[in-house]
Design goal:
- By secondary structure, the protein is mainly α.
- The chain folds into two domains: about 90 residues, no CATH class; about 110 residues, no CATH class.
- Helices cover about 65% and strands about 0% of the residues.
- A two-stranded antiparallel sheet has the order 1-2.
- Helix 1 packs across helix 4 and helix 2 runs parallel beside helix 4.
- The protein is globular and about 55 Å long.
- The model has no long low-confidence stretch (mean pLDDT about 85).
- It catalyses: androst-4-ene-3,17-dione + NADPH + H(+) = 5alpha-androstan-3,17-dione + NADP(+).
Length: about 250
């Protein structure tokens, strides 16, 4: 039954990713810079982020603990990398947030659903279906080494970009500011770009089909939002202020 569910979701998720990619060009998620009451009842942003992200951390912990192959050092490295990201996103990132923004419960619920499905696909793939594939020799493969470099490089970009965004506003200021430092000198949505690089690295180092589908979903989710943020910045600060930067990914990021 679990394997049937895995394969069903594996085929369904890319199709849904395309649908979400198209839909997000017309519907803006009502949180962050696009916070809106039209999405209904909301939670404090910190609470929403913890509830949305922690299922991935807890579910992957369960998959690894229950796996008969959990003693594999290669699988342990996959587990630790995944958990490193979600520990930061679930418990550290929300606590560093400033301001009193809110997140609609509907957004939180959709985030929980996606994280549960994504973690199921990756966890079941790595720790059950293909666990025997990952021998000690995996550590010396170009895909693992290159993937690790991308993963930590993307994480570094993401953390640095979040730090810049958090420190744009003086205390008590609610206005929007155009970020220009660091990665934002090159891309409008540096934190999104970093996350895409990070999960591309994870997919490369694991060579997991489920992880590559996660990369597709990351792009499908973040690219339209980055495009919307770019347009918002152009409206507030002018086309020249936004378009003058050196774009690593023109137009979208």
């Amino acid at each position: 039954m679990m394997e049937t569910m895995y394969h069903t979701l594996l085929y369904a998720m890319p199709v849904l990713a395309v649908i979400v990619f198209i839909a997000l060009f017309f519907v803006k998620a009502g949180y962050g810079i696009f916070q809106s009451r039209q999405w209904g009842i909301s939670l404090p942003n910190k609470v929403g982020w913890v509830l949305m992200e922690c299922p991935a951390f807890l579910m992957m912990l369960f998959f690894w603990l229950q796996s008969p192959a959990r003693s594999s050092s290669v699988l342990l490295s996959f587990f630790l990398l995944f958990e490193l990201h979600y520990f930061q996103r679930s418990f550290i990132f929300p606590m560093l947030m400033k301001g009193k923004s809110r997140m609609p419960i509907a957004i939180t619920a959709m985030g929980v659903l996606f994280n549960v499905i994504n973690t199921f696909l990756i966890g079941y793939d790595l720790f059950y279906l293909h666990a025997s594939t990952y021998t000690e020799a995996w550590f010396t493969t170009p895909s693992f080494i290159g993937g690790c470099l991308l993963f930590f490089g993307g994480m570094g970009i993401n953390l640095h970009a979040d730090h810049i965004i958090r420190n744009l506003r003086p205390a008590g200021d609610t206005r929007h500011y155009l970020p220009q430092k660091g990665i934002y000198h090159y891309v409008t949505s540096g934190n999104y770009f970093g996350e895409l690089v990070e999960w591309t690295g994870f997919a490369l180092l694991t060579q997991s089909t489920a992880a590559w589908i996660f990369v597709l979903w990351t792009f499908a989710n973040l690219a339209p939002r980055a495009y919307a943020i770019r347009n918002r910045y152009r409206e507030e600060f002018g086309r020249e202020a936004v378009g003058s930067r050196k774009c690593l990914i023109p137009y979208i990021f």
